[in-house]
Amino acid sequence: MSWKRSENQANSEPLKPLIERGKMSARIKGLSDLQTLVSLCKQRGFVFQSSEVYGGLNSCWDYGPLGSQFKLNVKLSWWKAMTRRPDIVGLDAAILMHPTVWRASGHVDGFTDPLVDCRDCKNRFRADQAESKDGKLICPSCGSQNVTEPRNFNLMFKTHMGPVEDEGSVVFLRPETAQGIFVNFENVQTSTRKKLPFGIAQIGKSFRNEITPGNFTFRTREFEQMEMQYFVKPGTDEGWFEEWKKTRWDYYLRLGFNEQKLRFKPHGPGELAHYAKAAFDVQYEFPFGWQELEGIHNRSDFDLSQHQKFSGKKLEYFDEVAKEKFIPYVIETAVGCDRLALALLCDAYREESLAQEDEAESSGGADVRVVLGLKPELAPIKVAFLPLSKKPALQELAGRLRNEAAQKWNVDLDEAASIGKRYRRQDEIGTPFCVTVDFQTLEDNEVTVRHRDSMKQVRVSIDQVMAYLDKQLNIF
Ligand code: ATP
Questions:
Q1: Which ligand 1 atom is at minimum distance from the Cα of 334?
Q2: Of all atoms in ligand 1, which is nearest to the CA of residue 340?
Q3: Is 203 within 8 Å of 78 (Cβ atoms)?
Q4: Which of 183, 235, 380, 437 makes the best surface tag, with the fewest CB within 10 Å?
């Protein structure tokens, strides 16, 4: 390999990339089927089937070494976007709550899906998701119309608290995190002395006994939610609803989403949840079609009023300026962390056909590279250190650089296989930068920094390389 020039001196001219890649766009293919991503996730340690050695547990997934870090980065991006604002604070409420919470919220009576059984193939499906002909539902599995009448099936998981399993010990695994926020409204407001409008953000597991889970991690029975409830004065709610739609749209663009694959979908009057005055979904175009990513709801004063009624405790806010008491309205933004992580992976996945001039990069004649074009902030590994050969001096130096970088970021040290193969491996998991230590490094104290997206390679002196990476990664 040959190198253009060094980026050592502060006065050096702008770097020229070693590889110019002008006509890339025509040779890029996005993700066309979910199965490709499922395979990559398994092979590279993003997501495994739960309890796989026992044949797996339907719709349950485990996040592997890369997946758990990636998911944490997704959560951090949301947490920072919320709680670094002066008007939003965080909360981490318990999964198990007093059973009356779920009567007050309407979940005991109303959190149901209409369930239908096919008498022929014994398949169970949701009436509201099935097609019908001549007023009769069609089984999505075998096409039979010999099906039962819909009956309501409650989606909450029930369990018992304590040693006695009777009706008095029933508790539910929460089906949403929001109620933990509502019942703590008073605690948070008085302990933080927040004035309206202010919000409470929470990330946590939720459980729903979904009738038809599926599409990988899109719809599962155990999942994580990132919900924020923004408490406002009644009358200002419609303005805040519009404000939050815009804020959340901007967040998705900042995460790097292709804007063409995002859209808002309003809920029609017949689709609104019992608590909602208005609702919009943010939808993403997954390989299996447009689907909800996030819900933005105007929940009015429904939840606080209900908890006030059922608990007998006042959940009003006193406005010191207007000298009046009222129950605040709530604007909610609710997104599934697993669903967002899946959408990000779908959006970031691309296959690039390499042109002639990229041949130096290709390994064993392979001319297609798979890239996860994740924003550095989200990538599970930020930098991989690659000694060009097994020569101890190169390995030792690469290891030393790796350890230094690990104090700031999640990094990798990859010593096996050809350099082309190692670049491909890092591209496939979204690593934004590779740092190669080669024979010339031992003479001139410079390493090669290779950029994932452009494949451009630049020489940087060892004592400048951490600052260089820091600037390029630009992680806030
Ligand atoms: P859906 O219509 O897809 O069932 P929902 O409208 O019931 O979702 P909400 O109750 O508004 O969903 O929950 C907020 C977010 O939580 C959803 O936008 C989605 O991202 C996520 N979510 C809800 N149910 C699941 C699930 N079973 N698996 C994974 N994520 C989920």
A1: 14
A2: 20
A3: yes
A4: 235
336 CA to middle of ligand 1, Å?
A: 6
Lookup result for tokens 């997934």: 61
C-alpha closest to that of 102 among 300, 273, 306: 306
Is the link from the previous residue into 197 a cis peptide, with omega within 30 of 0? yes
DSSP-based three-state secondary structure for 436: strand
Looking at ligand 1, which atom is closest to the CA of residue 210? 27
**Residue bearing tokens 């669903």:** 339
Residue range 410-423: average pLDDT? 94
User: What DSSP designation does 193 have?
Assistant: T
Token pair for residue 162?
A: 């304590």
**Quick one: pLDDT band at residue 276, thresholds 50, 70, 90?**
confident
Give percent of the chain with pLDDT exceeding 90. 79
- The dihedral built from the CA positions of residue 454, 457, 462 and 463, taken in this order, carries a sign that is negative
Name residues contacting ligand 1 (CB within 6 A): 176, 208, 210, 219-220, 223, 225, 292-295, 334-336, 338-339
- Whether the Cβ atoms of residue 66 and residue 428 lie closer than 8 Å to each other: no
Ligand 1 pocket test, candidate residues 157, 223, 297, most atoms within 8 A of CB: 223
- The string of pLDDT tens digits covering residues 33-51 is 999 999 999 999 999 999 9
Cα–Cα distance, 284 to 289 (Å, whole number): 8
Mean pLDDT across the chain: 90
Tell me how far the alpha carbon of residue 290 lies from the centroid of ligand 1, in angstroms.
14
